[in-house]
Amino acid sequence: MKDIILIPVAVLGGLGLVFGVLLAIAAKVFAVKTDERITAIAELLPGANCGGCGYSGCAQLAEAIAKGEASPNACSVGGNEVAEAIGKVMGVEVERTVRKRAQVMCSGTGNLATKKYVYKGVADCAAALLGGGDKLCSYGCIGLGTCVAACPYDAIEVVDGVAVVDSRKCRGCGACVNSCPRGLIEMIPYGATQWVACKSQEKGAVTRTQCRVGCIGCKICERNCPTKAIEVSNFLAKINYDKCTGCNICVEKCPQHTIWSARIEGGRLVINREMPEEKAK
């Protein structure tokens, strides 16, 4: 009787052993090989998952870099230090990049920008844009904080109807740039101390009716720049930072007070002049 009972137990034990061996073999045969570089690169990335690199998160960027689909310096938040470390993992030399910061190109605060109506609705710029925005200028900051919500570093706030970037907190990820429905935010060199705070491409006469500090395309800045770093196109001045020396002549000559000037002090951007509201009085 005992022998009869032991036979099925032995058979089951044997089958278990056979299946175990087969599963072990199958695991080795069908195993998906992982690139160890992906893990190494992911550990080097900051882990902010801001999306500024164009990928949904750091893990996805790490995979893209390992596959050669993205550059080792694709993460602007990590900067040159992280890029060089990733380059060592990939066995390549990485070109150093210039640190950048986000800058909102609009000066149309409070009493400076003409309003069309008082907006009462969802606090989202894209939603408000369905009605054209509350400002007469169709290029101006809507000021409802879509960029504020998009910034993973709490580096943006809306002040008197216009978004303002805190340069001390900005990591240059570009998430705010991608979120702005009017394309008002640009990435400029961190050390840039002048910028044209306007994006309007309306003719000067029209701009004057919409905003007291809007660029009117008069070309005075262009004519007076000693290094030819400013060019006016489509009634809007644009600074070429490869040529700009920070001489401040454009700031002094601009009749609309559209060009802002600042200095970097203790890692913080300090405005060198009065606020536009004071200048425009």
Give the overall pLDDT as a whole number: 88
The level 1 CATH classification of the largest domain is Alpha Beta
Low-pLDDT ranges: 276-281
Looking at the overall shape, the CATH architecture of the largest domain is 2-Layer Sandwich
- CATH topology of the largest domain, by name, is Alpha-Beta Plaits
Helix content: 25-40%
The secondary-structure class comes to alpha+beta
Measured between the Cα atoms of the first and last residue, the distance is: 109 Å
The largest beta-sheet arranges its strands as 5-8-9
Main sheet properties? 3 strands, antiparallel
Describe the protein.
- With about 280 residues, the chain is of the alpha+beta class.
- The chain folds into two domains: about 35-90, Orthogonal Bundle (3-methyladenine DNA Glycosylase II, Chain A, domain 3); about 100-280, 2-Layer Sandwich (Alpha-Beta Plaits), CATH 3.30.70.20.
- It contains eleven helices and nine strands.
- The protein has helices at about 1-30, 35-45, 60-65, 80-90, 125-130, 145-150, 175-180, 205-210, 220-225, 250-255, 275-280, and strands spanning about 100-105, 155-160, 160-165, 185-190, 195, 230-235, 235-240, 260-265, 270.
- The strands form four sheets. Strands 5-8-9 form a three-stranded antiparallel β-sheet, with no helix packed on it. The chain has a two-stranded antiparallel sheet with strand order 1-4. Strands 2-3 form a two-stranded antiparallel sheet.
- β8 (about 260-265) and β9 (about 270) form a beta hairpin.
- α2 (about 35-45) packs antiparallel against α4.
- It is elongated.
- The N and C termini lie far apart (about 110 Å).
- Residues about 275-280 have low confidence and may be disordered.
